[in-house]
Write a structure and sequence with these properties.
Strand content of chain B: 15-25%
Strand content of chain A: under 5%
Number of strands of chain B: 20
Number of helices of chain B: 19
Largest interface: A-B, 35 and 46 residues
Number of domains of chain B: 2
Radius of gyration of chain B: 42 Å
Structural class of chain B: alpha+beta
Distance between the termini of chain B: 112 Å
Structural class of chain A: mainly alpha
Number of strands of chain A: 0
Oligomer: heterodimer
CATH superfamily of the largest domain in chain B: DD-peptidase/beta-lactamase superfamily
Largest sheet of chain B: 5 strands, mixed
Helix content of chain A: over 70%
Shape of chain A: elongated
Radius of gyration of chain A: 35 Å
Distance between the termini of chain A: 91 Å
């Protein structure tokens, strides 16, 4: 009886020791993985910041104006003027029948608006 | 312990003599002995049990404590995560009202040399000189010579150059990371943004701190860790700001002015949509503050928020407003405009005009009559004038979020606000304030009469409960009058088709620093509202010493100089701010067969 007890408890000891060690090692591995990911996040955020800054730099109004002027021949971009505002009715209807759909939807919307 | 003899004979004999049973006596003695032994062993056993219990208690206690410690403190991974965030972005971005970046951070690299760790100093110097053409290899070799142990080679280099330095493979060249504040739009909104520099500078990192503008005003907010990542949203519209700067710069050059400023404010919320002061500077590389001379001549000086000027006839709107509020006059009441003399001071019209014996209140504003304003001021008196100007914020610095604005206290007769002060203030002399003051006063008077507070923050500064400065009716009349100044009066050059500009010109001669006024130097300004029926925005343009030569004659008045610039600003920004032209002029073009470009906003 006593031998059996000793045998059982030593097995338990070995098992629990193994369990403790494995938990310890997986934890450490997880920590290392977290550190690596954190580092990657820092790098990515840094990259995003740089790209955002670059985007803002490339889209600065002064540069866009310069580009619009330089490419005026092709793009014919001019500053927005009051007479650039128009009504939907002024747009030529597409020939593929989509125009009818659009004008129907719009007139329905206009009806709704007057109903309200 | 009493020593007992080994031989029990003596005790037996003694017991017999007393008539007792010696065996019994002996047994009793043995019993006592055994009992005392048992007692001792029992105590021992109890002590051991206690000891073991203590050991277990200690062991489990320690495990428990450890668990508590682990549960309540941060693990190294968590600490690393927090540290990481700190490094990612020390300072929040500044963005415009649509989230476009005005200021951000980039990580730049600095190159540091440790000559004592170098393998080949000459090769390092030559390698560096190849990468950076502006470095002289001979100077570098001299600097690398012993006993040098630490020196900055370059403070800011691009990633490509840093890689090239790394590729030299010299262990004595170290790359250090640092955050740099970047203003990607260059000079745009320079006076609003201000600038940032380095606080504590170390090899590995440097602390970025605000030096001026909103960078300084919101320094703590921008550096705060709890609002991390949330950018500071300004009320500025990048596109409008860019247009205003462009138009203002061209206008200033065209009018030969030495300085200029423009303010575009939301008439209902007090939000600054654009604010510019010329000349300006690049916040990426701000010029040093001037050591001598007039600080107002420095490009760092913000004429819109910091410049305190007598703004001339633009103030007549307040006089007219007060005349209506106090019930002295209605827009059609005739005001005496015959030449006036107060004590020994003659009150003259501009250019010694004579507008006849009477003018309606509307015409006092439209024709800009000094005499008419003076008469009104004499009627409503000092106290009423002072109270209105105080309500409109003219007696204290604006609450706008700029250090420059906070320091710009208006100049007014603090002790002796006499009747003659009231007269001159009624047409804009004797009270100096910033163009931002003027803009917010125009907004408050024309938006229906509710006070607005100038602000650079998106959403505006709520005044709770709303404060009324003039009645709805007065406000409506003022809008009508301002529109009339543009259609029939001094500001015809400011009119923009489709946007119903209303406004008032102001031309004030500049005071000499030595006293008195210059004959040929003026500050001309134009305060405009649009659309006049229901103002959405207020525009104030100010020119410092403009002079436009027309047909051989110099023209300095605001109607010639500031008004057309304001008109051009409105023409350009109104569509960008999403305002459709009124009266459908823009949509009538379809009949002419022109191609219609629909703008979206």
């Amino acid at each position: 009886m006593r031998t059996l007890f000793y045998l059982f408890s030593s097995c338990l000891l070995i098992l629990s020791a193994y369990w403790a060690y494995s938990v310890n090692y997986t934890t450490r591995a997880a920590e290392r993985r977290v550190a690596v990911i954190e580092h990657k996040i820092i790098e990515e955020t840094d990259k995003i910041e740089v790209l955002n800054a670059e985007w803002a730099y490339l889209n600065r109004p002064e540069r866009l104006t310069r580009l619009a002027e330089a490419n005026f021949e092709i793009l014919r971009l001019v500053p927005v003027r009051a007479d650039h505002y128009g009504t939907v009715a002024e747009i030529a209807e597409p020939s593929d029948g989509l125009g009818g759909l659009i004008s129907n939807t719009l007139s329905a919307a206009a009806r709704d608006e007057t109903d309200n | 312990m009493i020593r007992r003899p080994l031989r029990p004979l003596a005790r037996i004999i003694a017991a017999r003599e007393q008539g007792l049973d010696p065996d019994r006596k002996e047994a009793e003695a043995r019993l006592a002995k055994v009992q005392s032994k048992r007692k001792r062993e029992h105590q021992h056993a109890q002590f051991r049990i206690l000891l073991i219990a203590c050991m277990f208690l200690g062991g489990f206690g320690m495990i428990g404590l450890r668990m508590v410690v682990l549960a309540t403190t941060q693990t190294p991974a968590e600490i690393a995560a927090i540290e990481a965030k700190k490094i990612v972005s020390d300072r929040a971005d500044i963005v415009d009202r649509h989230g476009r970046i005005l200021a951000t951070n980039i990580t730049t690299t600095s190159i540091i040399a440790h000559p004592h760790q170098m393998i080949d100093r000459n090769a390092a110097a030559e390698g560096l000189a190849r990468i950076f053409p502006d470095l002289d290899p001979r100077v570098l070799k001299r600097r690398f010579a012993p006993p040098a142990k630490f020196l900055f080679v370059k403070r800011k280099v691009s990633p490509e150059k840093a890689q090239a330095v790394h590729d030299l493979g010299e262990p004595g060249l170290v790359l250090g990371k640092r955050e740099t504040r970047l203003y990607p739009n260059g000079k745009l909104a320079a006076h609003i943004l201000g600038g940032a520099g380095y606080g504590n500078e170390e090899i590995a990192a440097a602390e970025v701190v605000g030096r001026s503008g909103v960078e300084y005003w919101f320094d703590e907010r921008l550096r705060a860790q709890d609002t991390l990542g949330a950018p500071l949203e300004l009320s500025i519209d990048l596109t409008a700001q860019s247009i205003v700067e462009q138009v203002l710069y061209r206008g200033m050059t065209l009018m030969n002015a030495k300085g200029a400023s423009a303010v575009v404010m939301d008439a209902n919320t007090g939000e600054m949509v654009a604010m510019s002061s010329m000349p300006d500077f690049d916040p990426n590389n701000p010029p040093a503050a001037p050591k001598k001379g007039d600080p107002a001549d420095s490009p760092l000086f913000n004429q819109a928020a910091q410049g305190v000027y007598e703004l001339g006839s633009s103030y007549k709107l307040f006089t007219v407003a007060l005349a209506m509020e106090t019930g002295i006059a209605t827009p059609d009441t005739l005001i005496d405009t015959k030449p006036l003399r107060w004590g020994r001071f003659p009150i003259r019209e501009f250019d010694n005009h004579n507008y006849g014996p009477f003018q309606s209140l509307t015409n006092v504003l439209v024709k800009s009559s000094n005499v008419g304003s003076a008469r009104l001021a004499m009627e409503f008196g000092v106290e009423a004038q002072r109270a209105l100007l105080d309500d409109l914020g003219f007696l204290s610095p604006t609450l706008m979020e700029l250090p420059a604005a906070k320091s710009a206290a208006p100049i007014y007769p603090k002790k002796n606000w006499s009747e003659i002060s009231a007269i001159t203030i009624s047409y804009g002399h004797g009270l100096s304030a910033t163009p931002v003051h003027l803009a917010s006063a125009y907004a408050s008077l024309t938006n229906g009469g509710l006070l607005v507070q100038p602000t650079l923050m998106k959403g505006g500064a709520k005044i709770d409960p709303p404060r009324r400065v003039v009645s709805e009716k007065t406000s409506r009349s003022l809008r009508y009058m301002l529109r009339k100044v543009v259609t029939d009066g001094t500001a015809s050059l400011a009119d923009v088709e489709g946007y119903e500009v209303g406004g008032k010109t102001g031309t004030a001669v500049k005071p000499k620093p030595t006293g008195g006024y210059y004959a040929d130097r003026v500050i001309s300004n134009f305060a405009a509202i649009f659309p006049a029926q229901n103002p959405r925005y207020v525009v104030v343009v100010t020119l410092d010493e403009p002079q436009d030569i027309v047909a051989g004659k110099p023209k300095r008045t605001a109607g010639w100089t500031a008004a057309p610039i304001a008109g051009e600003i409105i023409r350009r920004i109104a569509p960008v701010l999403g305002l459709r032209p009124l009266s459908g002029r823009g949509t009538e073009r379809a009949d002419s067969g022109a191609i219609v470009t629909l703008a979206s906003q």
